[in-house]
Amino acid sequence: SEGEPLLAVEALTAHYGDFQALFGVDLHLDPGGCVAIIGANGAGKTTLMRTIAGILRAGAGRVLLDGAEIQRLAAPEVLRHGVAMVPEGRKLFPSLSVEENLLIGAHERKGDGRWNLETIYDLFPILRERRRNPGTALSGGQQQMVAIGRALMSNPRVLLCDEISLGLAPVVIRDIYAAVPRIRESGTAIVVVEQDIGQALKIADYVYCMMEGRVTLSGRPSDLSREAIHDAYFGVS
Ligand code: ATP
Q1: What pLDDT is attached to residue 104?
Q2: Which residue has a Cα nearest atom 2 of ligand 1?
Q3: pLDDT value, residue 1
Q4: Could you tell me if the CB of 236 is within 6 A of ligand 1?
Q5: Which residues of the chain are modeled with pLDDT < 50?
Q6: ipTM for the complex?
């Protein structure tokens, strides 16, 4: 697009000790946009999300939010700047109720956004019914909804979603992905990590495929052939 990206990742690297997990990754997210990151196990998708979120320290390269560098900020600072992460595995507080889990996300709240308990219950009506239930009493899909709602409670400009469909039934995945357009309409842009290529192509306006810590293919879903994706996903020998 013509305008400045909301989020720009430039030549980003990351390491776990001596092991290099990211090799010069570039990624752009437009305001209100949705990009998907696909790739096999171990490709570096989670590492990229955690590095953007400030959970992992970046090596070289930059992460720019509205043109300002954020790659040296710690995770709470990144959240305060408007980048919220829905971690893989949901990570709810099991002894707290649905509502209490959501309110934890309001801790770093920016005042003027659209998200609050009522709008999140409108997004996922089952959570309104279950609002007094402890996290442990929820199905996997409901827990995922709480994890998304909790991240939205900070009124983020960017929502990073790590494998939100993992282990869920197709009907539940459909319900969760139905929320994506409504989240985008609220002005929150989204990055999803998704193992399901078909799902990624459906939901995103731009797709990045990673393999062994590198982006091996990127483009609009309509411009990517199945063959090219297959090669970028599994490698060509
Ligand atoms: P998955 O779908 O399995 O989550 P992924 O694409 O998200 O895969 P990452 O979890 O980012 O991949 O892992 C990228 C590489 O970094 C892998 O080789 C993995 O073994 C390695 N790695 C991930 N976490 C750590 C860690 N805490 N310590 C050392 N190596 C790690």
Answers
A1: 86
A2: 41
A3: 47
A4: no
A5: 1
A6: 0.95
Query: Which residue pairs from 202-207 have beta carbons closer than 8 angstroms and sit at least 24 positions apart in sequence?
Result: 202/177, 203/34, 203/36, 203/177, 204/34, 204/35, 204/36, 205/30, 205/33, 205/34, 205/35, 206/28, 206/33, 206/34, 206/35, 206/36, 207/35, 207/36, 207/37, 207/38
Question: Structure tokens of 130?
Answer: 């279950």
What is the DSSP code (8-state) at residue 155? -
* b/e code 197-210 from CB counts within 10 Å (16+ = b): bebbbebbbbbbbb
168 CA from centroid of ligand 1 (Å): 21
Outline where DSSP puts E strands in 92-236: 158-162, 189-193, 206-211, 214-219
State which amino acid sits at residue 187: G
Lateral strand order in the sheet of 68-69: 19-29, 7-16, 62-65, 68-69
Report the distance separating Cα 229 and Cα 209, nearest Å: 7
CB atoms within 10 A of CB 223: 10
- Residue 22: phi and psi, rounded to 5, are -130, 135
Tell me phi and psi for residue 130, to 5 degrees: -100, 15
Cβ count near 51 (within 10 Å): 24
Tell me the residue ranges of DSSP E strands in the chain.
7-16, 19-29, 34-38, 62-65, 68-69, 83-86, 158-162, 189-193, 206-211, 214-219
Q: Which of 12, 20, 45, 162 to mutate to test the pocket of ligand 1 (most atoms within 8 A of CB)?
A: 45
- Side chain identity at 125, as an amino acid letter? P
Mutate to test the pocket of ligand 1, among 15, 19, 56, 166 (most ligand atoms within 8 A of CB): 19
From the centroid of its chain, how far is CA 94?
22
